[in-house]
Amino acid sequence: MYAEVAMSQFMDFSTPPEILRSNLSSFLLTLKALGVQNILSFDLMNRPSIPTLCHGLETLYALGAIDDETNLTKLGDRMAEFPASPHESKMMLESLQLGCSKEIIYVGAALQVKSLFYQPKNPRQRIEYDKAMNEIIDRTGDHVTYVNLMEVNDCMPYSENECRERFLNFQALQLIDDVRTQLTSHLRRYGRIQGIDTDISIAERSALIRRCITAGFFTNVAKLGNDGMYRSLRGKVQVSISVTSILHRFGNPSEYILFGDTYDGSRGGIEVRHCSAIEAKWLREVAPNYWG
Predict the structure, then answer these.
(1) How many CA atoms lie within 13 A of 182 on its CB side?
(2) Do residues 76 and 116 both lie within one domain?
(3) Could you tell me if 140 and 254 lie in one domain?
(4) In terms of CB atoms within 10 Å, which of 67, 90, 138, 243 comes out highest?
């Protein structure tokens, strides 16, 4: 129940079309791959605002998918063929150069599911949850933790009962395995799939994975302020780390974090998920034109 004045002032009579609510970089990349030259004059049934379209094009340019004339680049052509977002596609293609494709494919597959872990509901479950997470956790955040989980599951796949005991979503793990097969098939067309050298330290391995992820998600970065709150580097929008994130419960404080996506949180305000700590210098290394 709600007041009539609330209906008239604050609620739309119908949900706005998805094209008016979504990040347009994937959509614009598809149009470019189909040969559409002038995006701004393309006839759309529900036209997004010019700033929204420009932001999508700016993102594609920063990722290297289009050039100064908004023409599709060779990299952009490859990104358009992936069954993933431009951010994820760039991340996976970058992994071929850094020698961490196997690990990054794990990450790309994990990003396709909403909830990989179930959250504990009472103090007793929290103790069990912490014990289970300690077997796979990387305190730099979600992405390397996903890799650790996938590697353990590859060696000895969890049964449905074992997943329940470890607060894991069994169906999500199965979906991840299917998606990983698809991503591997696509990425193999452009280079050799290989894993990180086992001779390097755990810290170096974690840093390499997170730096590669930064190459694709450098637009999604927030900085810790003096008030203890994170704000996006672009737009200075205040965000909170999701309670489902490793960083929220187990992570060490980090000046900069990278996130996969945003949503309207139940605690109020914007929350971010799929989060990891990163180093500021990586931003200028992977995207000098964007953060230079």
Answers:
(1) 14
(2) no
(3) yes
(4) 90
How many structural domains comprise the chain? 2
Of the CA atoms within 13 Å of residue 255, those in its CB half-sphere come to 3
- Rounded Cα–Cα distance for residues 170 and 261 (Å): 23
Inter-residue contact 233 to 223 (CB < 8 Å): yes
| Report field, pTM of the whole predicted structure over 0.85 | yes
pLDDT in tens, 175-220: 999 999 999 999 999 999 999 999 999 999 999 999 999 999 999 9
Q: What is the three-class DSSP state of 36?
A: coil
Residue by residue, DSSP assigns 101-125 as HHHHHHHHHHTT-S-SBPPP-SHHH
DSSP-assigned letter for residue 68: T
Tokens 């992936």 belong to which residue?
82
Domain check: are 51 and 137 in the same one?
no
**Residue at a domain's end among 81, 108, 137:** 81
Same domain flag for 172 and 257: yes
Which DSSP helix (H) or strand (E) runs through 224? strand 221-224
Same domain for 208 and 238?
yes
d(CA 170, CA 176): 10
Question: Terminal CA-to-CA distance of the chain, rounded, Å?
Answer: 51
- Together in a domain, 57 and 160: no
Q: What residues pair up with 270 in beta bridges, in sequence order? A: 239, 264
Task: Tell me which residue range forms the domain holding 21.
Answer: 4-81
Q: Which residue has the tokens 């799939």?
A: 193
